[in-house]
Amino acid sequence: MSTIADNLSALANRIESAARAAGREPASVQLLAVSKTKPASAIREIHAAGVRDVGENYLQEALAKQDELRDLPLIWHFIGPIQSNKTKAIAEHFDWVHSVDRLKIAQRLSEQRPAGLAPLNICLQVNVSGEDSKSGCAPADLPALAKAVAALPNLRLRGLMAIPEPTEDRAAQEAAFASLRRLQEGLDLDCDTLSMGMSHDLEAAIAQGATWVRIGTALFGARNYGPA
Ligand SMILES: *Cc1c(COP(=O)(O)O)cnc(C)c1O
């Protein structure tokens, strides 16, 4: 077996044990393969091993890979910070966006979603750790944002996403994920998605109700951000 296929089977075991430990069906947790910085060939490999959903953070990089992988029935998720001038291409080329954190971006995505396509699936990114990270709406602003986004015609609000401050402390990981879950429960909206958990904290996220785990390193190996 190749490394990626090995990694996938180890990861599937982690997801399954975490789900069972939480009294959940393993199938209620979906895997999003996060392929930023990795070549199209790595995505081809993970698809051959049975993965269908791919997450990318950078628009130009994602579009280049989509072009190379046209022949595969992949589902593309945008998970990175979004600038206004990128919304048109995102609305045209993705099935999901996990990182919407302000109304202006949601309005543009709705306006720019092509007529022939299904509504764009949206998760609102929330800053649950409260550290001054650049991304995510403040929990206090979430109810109004969610209500406004749910009313946009060409979007389908699916749920919430968070990237908590990294920590190895399991209790702290769970506390952050639990706060996202409670925020979602507090919204009076029909949401079915909690996008939370990465390579180092997926067990805690699954214990607190994650429906998507977004996994890069544990599937594709460490990323190299050095000069190309
Ligand atoms: C890179 C990234 C991931 C994957 O992180 P790993 O620790 O490599 O699993 C998940 N979500 C987002 C938003 C990311 O940017």
UniProtKB/TrEMBL annotation:
CDD domains: PLPDE_III_Yggs_like
Organism superkingdom: Bacteria
Pfam families: Ala_racemase_N (PF01168)
InterPro entries (alphabetical): Ala_racemase_N, PLP-binding_barrel, PyrdxlP_homeostasis
Keyword Metal-binding applies: no
Keywords assigned: Pyridoxal phosphate
SUPFAM superfamilies reported in the protein's UniProt record: PLP-binding barrel
PTM annotation (N6-(pyridoxal phosphate)lysine): residues: K36
Residue ranges of every copy of the Alanine racemase N-terminal domain listed in the record: 7-223
NCBIfam families recorded: YggS family pyridoxal phosphate-dependent enzyme
Similarity section: Belongs to the pyridoxal phosphate-binding protein YggS/PROSC family.
Role noted for this protein: Pyridoxal 5'-phosphate (PLP)-binding protein, which is involved in PLP homeostasis.
PANTHER family: PROLINE SYNTHETASE CO-TRANSCRIBED BACTERIAL HOMOLOG PROTEIN (PTHR10146), PYRIDOXAL PHOSPHATE HOMEOSTASIS PROTEIN (PTHR10146:SF14)
Protein name: Pyridoxal phosphate homeostasis protein
Organism of origin: Pseudomonas taiwanensis
